[in-house]
């Protein structure tokens, strides 16, 4: 497809939105990719990376290789994701520590709208799609109830965590950052990015790359052979993840981190009226509406051909 410079700028903006979402433990960049209309192209592009592409590079040169690998799309999207993820990770950390109800309210509204826009792409509802929806919701809900493991700094563990987390990052509804928290690798990666620990960043990135290339082939096959069922499963993932982003939580267990700070490990959702502290319910509802409307804007951009 022929694209102009402004089209790639729009793709970079979508990448920025994806990176910002993935930086928040509980929100998936895959959801943003789906709503903004680039999800299936992203999966197809990643899954097309194989040995044959490098044969094209050596036999035909850079230009045919770059076209075959969809290079402009990858660069535009990844530039937005990387810049946004690295910069927003610190902002997200501050907001989660100081204004958790408000940031979760925004993302709750965003995800509620996402359920509608992903679900409406299912062209035929039947028993298999309904079962897939229920299974997806059940899996995602169960994941949101898991307690976090202790922090682990080993290189092998960081490699495996990267491979697992990247799969979640490209799945709508399941957050890669939240998976990192459950695995006990979120703090290690955050510190590595903040301190520019090149060794740990390379280990994590290598694991993520291998996981991404492997998992994208599975997703591409599922979309090709079971399109409606796959969409229903992904819709279920998004629906089940609502438990994680519910703004009002009661902390059941705490963990003391390396800086001596108490951080929540296991939480459960509660009514805003039984929430201990300022429930900020008026501002929260306003941000839910804002998050909901944000998806309409992203979907409008996604409906335009890039």
What does this molecule look like?
The protein is mostly helical and 306 residues long. It is 71% helix and 5% strand. A two-stranded antiparallel ribbon has the order 1-2. Helix 3 (39-47) crosses helix 12 and helix 9 (155-169) packs antiparallel against helix 10 (176-183). 40% of the residues are buried. The mean pLDDT is 80.
Topology of this protein?
Blueprint: H1 5-22, H2 29-35, H3 39-47, H4 51-60, H5 62-68, H6 71-98, H7 100-119, H8 127-144, H9 155-169, H10 176-183, H11 186-195, H12 198-225, H13 227-240, H14 242-245, E1 249-256, E2 262-269, H15 281-302
Antiparallel strand pairs: 1-2
Helix pairs in contact: 1-2, 1-6, 2-7, 3-12, 4-5, 6-7, 7-13, 7-15, 8-13, 9-10, 9-12, 11-12, 12-13
């Amino acid at each position: 497809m022929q694209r102009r410079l402004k089209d790639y700028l729009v793709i970079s903006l979508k990448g920025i939105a994806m990176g910002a979402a993935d930086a928040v433990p509980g929100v998936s960049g895959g959801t943003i990719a789906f709503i903004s209309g680039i999800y299936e192209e992203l999966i197809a592009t990643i899954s097309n990376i194989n040995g044959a592409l490098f044969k094209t590079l050596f036999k035909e040169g850079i230009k045919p290789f770059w076209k075959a690998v969809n290079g402009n799309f990858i660069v535009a999207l990844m530039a937005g994701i990387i810049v946004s993820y690295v910069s927003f990770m610190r902002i997200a950390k501050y907001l989660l520590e100081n204004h958790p109800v408000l940031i979760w309210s925004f993302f709750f509204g965003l995800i509620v709208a996402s359920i509608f826009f992903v679900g409406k792409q299912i062209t035929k509802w039947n028993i298999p799609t309904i079962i897939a929806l229920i299974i997806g919701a059940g899996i995602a809900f169960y994941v949101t109830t898991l307690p976090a493991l202790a922090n682990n700094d080993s290189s092998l563990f960081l490699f495996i965590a990267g491979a697992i987390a990247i799969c979640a990052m490209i799945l709508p509804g399941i957050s890669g950052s939240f998976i990192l928290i459950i695995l006990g690798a979120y703090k290690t990666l955050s510190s590595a990015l903040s301190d520019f620990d090149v060794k740990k960043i390379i280990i994590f990135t290598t694991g993520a790359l291998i996981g991404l290339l492997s998992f994208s082939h599975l997703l591409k096959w599922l979309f090709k052979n079971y399109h409606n069922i796959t969409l229903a499963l992904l819709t279920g993932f998004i629906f089940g993840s609502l438990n994680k982003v519910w703004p009002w939580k009661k902390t059941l267990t705490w963990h003391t981190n390396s800086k001596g700070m108490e951080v929540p490990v296991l939480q459960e959702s509660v009514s805003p009226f039984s929430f201990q502290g300022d429930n900020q319910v008026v501002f929260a509802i306003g941000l839910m509406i804002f998050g909901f409307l944000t998806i309409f804007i992203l979907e409008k951009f996604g409906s335009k051909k890039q």
